[in-house]
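[Automated response] Your request has been received and processed.

Submitted sequence:
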Amino acid sequence: MSNPVRWGILGAAKFAREHMGPAINAAKGADLAALATSSPDKAAPFQAFAPRLRVHADYDALLADPEIDAVYIPLPNHLHVDWTLKALAAGKPVLTEKPIALQAADIDRIIAARDSTGLLAAEAFMIVHHPQWQLVRDWIAEGRIGELLHVRGAFSFDNSADAANIRNKPDTGGGALRDIGVYVLGSVRFATGQDPDQISARIRWDNGIDGFAAIDAVFPGFTYASYVSMRMSPYQEMSFHGTEGTIRLSAPFNANVFGEARVELHTPTLQVETRRFPGVNHYIHQVEAFGHTIRDGAPYPCPLEFTRGTQEALDRIYASPQNL
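Generated structure:
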């Protein structure tokens, strides 16, 4: 058996502490080996589940560590591009939290660096690694709902009381579209393999960030409507409505947190076929897929070209927003 991929994390972010750090630690063929943070207090919770974790006082020191094979970046959004490029320049394959960039042109820079170094760089778009989304993609391709005519989506939570949160700050790349709009848009692109011909959004701004956005789009053959918000009670759902049935996902984005991952196929006779995925951790699957690619050369399920397509759609929305 090959040696495990030794991972280092840049920054002790809450998301890394609660989700990706434990996932790296639990994934097959992976070892959470190092963390870069200047705060011992922030490192302590990571060391609680990864006792052998080495702590570097700054990010550059971790990138220079010869015993690190891959880097995970959960930094604030506006820092993603620079540190992704620095990781590649340091010879490290890199998995960066979404959005990996704030505009599509910056993803082109990362693609160029990926290609010149020959190293894997990817956005941590974890949902495509979940079997529920792979099932939805297969059902649509197999014609289980006939011709797809309309897609609906919703994703919301409320962090209005947390003014210091980076999602609530325009200078750190905050906003609902960047934080969760990538899911309601990217999931449809993944499931259908299509890009929108037309797209727009009605946006409600709150202190410089989009706290709510209602998105409308026309894809080849079907229409699309969704909303995302950081100012509404927690909710998420996706549905794909065709001529011969409907596919519904009840926890499409935060499986195990919002609820059990469940995919329902509703037929014209009102019968429901349900597939459940209790306990499946898409973060662990993501880490294992990344390792499989850098160790064995397997195709990565979510290449940067896919990521760029979602960002390009967001760029089009931000270029001509319709304000509420």
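Summary generated for your ticket: The CA atoms of residues 36 and 59 lie 5 Å apart. The two ends are 57 Å apart (CA to CA).
If you did not submit this request, please reply to this message.
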